[in-house]
Amino acid sequence: MSVYDIEIKSARGETTDLSNYEGKVMLIVNTASKCGFAPQFKGLQRLHETYANQGLAVLGFPSNQFANQEPLEGDSLAEHCQINHGVTFPLHAKIDVKGSGIHPLYRHLTKSAPGFLGLKGIKWNFTKFLVDRHGKVVKRFSPTVTPDKIEGQIQKLLQQK
After folding, report:
1. Is the pLDDT of residue 8 over 80?
2. pTM score, two decimals?
3. For the chain, what is the domain count?
4. Residues sharing a CB contact under 8 Å with residue 103, sequence separation 6 or more, in sequence order
5. Of 113, 4, 104, 97, the residue nearest 57 (C-alpha)
6. Which residue in the list 35, 109, 113, 150 is annotated as catalytic?
7. Residue-wise pLDDT tens digits, 85-121
8. The CATH number of the domain where 54 resides is what?
9. Which residues constitute the domain of residue 128?
10. Cα 29 from Cα 59, distance rounded (Å)
11. In this model, does residue 58 exceed pLDDT 70?
12. Where are the alpha helices (H) located in the chain, listed in sequence order?
């Protein structure tokens, strides 16, 4: 299965799939608005503003699986992130990123790019996955890796066709 075949839901519950992003570099992040890493929203937004017209898609997938740090949903979540962090990149419907109910997107991402010591599970909010223009998961970044530390790798992928 290709990453482009995976169905996702918008924050408003509309079903689509990742084929809308075919040919783009994707930075996929599991987010939580009440997390200590939430200031990374600003860095993600800066990447979105800087590189969207060159083919970068920053995609946020909220999850409430880590210390219940994402109590918001839908429009209230999008509004909170826009007001508090300036977020205009797409935030999707809340999903599970680990466990028995893991969303197919995160099953694919974690299988394609295991974490430290080969562990597949997501350990916390703001784990990031970089996907190239052909849908290949290139790299996984831990929550402590800030968006500015990924920028050079994004630039390299954007230059590739």
Report:
1. yes
2. 0.93
3. 1
4. 61, 95, 96, 97
5. 4
6. 35
7. 778 899 899 999 999 999 999 999 999 886 665 566 7
8. 3.40.30.10
9. 3-159
10. 6
11. yes
12. 40-51, 74-85, 104-112, 147-159
